[in-house]
Amino acid sequence: MDSTLILEKGIFIVIIFAITMLMAMYSTLAERKVAAWLQDRVGPNRAGKGGILQPLADGLKLFSKEEFLPDTPNKFLFVVGPAISMSVALMTSAVIPWGDKLHLFGRDIILQATDIDVALLYVFGVLSVGVYGIMIGGWASNNKFSLMSAMRAASQMISYEVAMGLSIIALLMMSGTLSLREISLQQAGMNWNVFYQPLGFIIFLVCSFAETNRTPFDLAECEAELIGGYHTEYSSMRMGFYLFAEYAAMFISSTILAVLYFGAYNYPGMQWAVDNWGVNPANIIGIFVLFAKICFFIFFFMWVRWTIPRFRYDQLMRLGWKVLIPLAILNIFITGFVILWADS
């Protein structure tokens, strides 16, 4: 790999990390604005015009708060827990195709940090590490409520990862690849996977709520039972990392949903735009189309949070093991039958 390509990939990784951080930061403002809209109130509007600087004010407030370290024999793990959650939330963006290639400076630039053949396995592997950040933080807090919350989060995420993985198998049977770029290219035009895998999409969407600990699956942060959850003993930016990681995970989950089921950067008439306007204008539009899809899913996450009450814990586990997993297995059988029937 030549030095120019290494520099190009390095700059692209920095840009993607910055976009992920910016989207996660302003998702906190969007959350409060959506909540205010659904509850018929104003929402934040003091910091900047329309509250546009509110995320910066929140960050400054977290930085200025006192750092609190509980009486725990695991001070190192107490500090490492939020760092793991934050790192995991950002690492998955490396294999996501943010658009098709652009022709700049006499060469084609691929809008993806790295294209590996097992990108989906990488995403699932990184996401499965996220439970360690929550588990370590809850256990090292030396607080029984934090530990109970961490155990809830761990069992919930492990349970729903099974159904999520099974829902992806049917999609892989159709696409025949684990590369996110290949899956995106196969959905050119309106050939989106959601039309062929509607059940798999619904299962994956529900599991995404559980994986990101969003309402109605936020049993790990149930204030009535567990005070504040696994981050009860955290303060200042350590608590901010946990909260920020949740929004970063929501952004990445929305991106994965858009890439796997809603055509990624593809849009109707994209080939016509390439033929008439050129590659760069058509593909730049594709980038904006992908982010429009991501913003729609982020809004949907927020809409559900402020509309549906949280489940009981036994209902949550019953939904995962007795409903979603059997449905995912049924979807695999149906997909296999349809593929065999089409081939014959």
Provide a short characterization of the protein structure.
This protein has 344 residues and is mainly α.
Describe this structure in words.
The chain is mostly helical and 344 residues long. Helix content is 68%, strand content 2%. The protein contains 12 helices and 2 strands. Strands 1-2 form a two-stranded antiparallel ribbon. The protein is globular and about 60 Å long. The relative contact order is 0.14. The model has no long low-confidence stretch (mean pLDDT 86).
List the helices and strands and how they pair.
Elements: H1 3-38, H2 54-64, H3 75-91, E1 102-104, E2 107-109, H4 119-140, H5 144-175, H6 180-185, H7 198-211, H8 223-226, H9 236-261, H10 270-277, H11 279-305, H12 313-343
Helix pairs in contact: 1-9, 1-11, 2-9, 3-4, 3-9, 4-5, 5-7, 5-12, 7-9, 7-12, 9-11, 10-11
Low-confidence stretches: none
The average pLDDT score comes to: 86
| End-to-end Cα distance | 45 Å
Topology order in helix (H) and strand (E) letters: HHHEEHHHHHHHHH
- Describe the main β-sheet briefly: 2 strands, antiparallel
Question: Roughly how much helix do the residues carry, as a percent range?
Answer: 55-70%
Strand content: under 5%
If helices are DSSP runs of H or I spanning 4 or more residues, what is the number of helices?
Answer: 12
Quaternary structure type: single chain
The tally of strands reads 2
Q: Output the radius of gyration.
A: 21 Å
Structural class, please? mainly alpha
Q: In which order are the strands of the major sheet placed?
A: 1-2
The coarse overall form would be globular
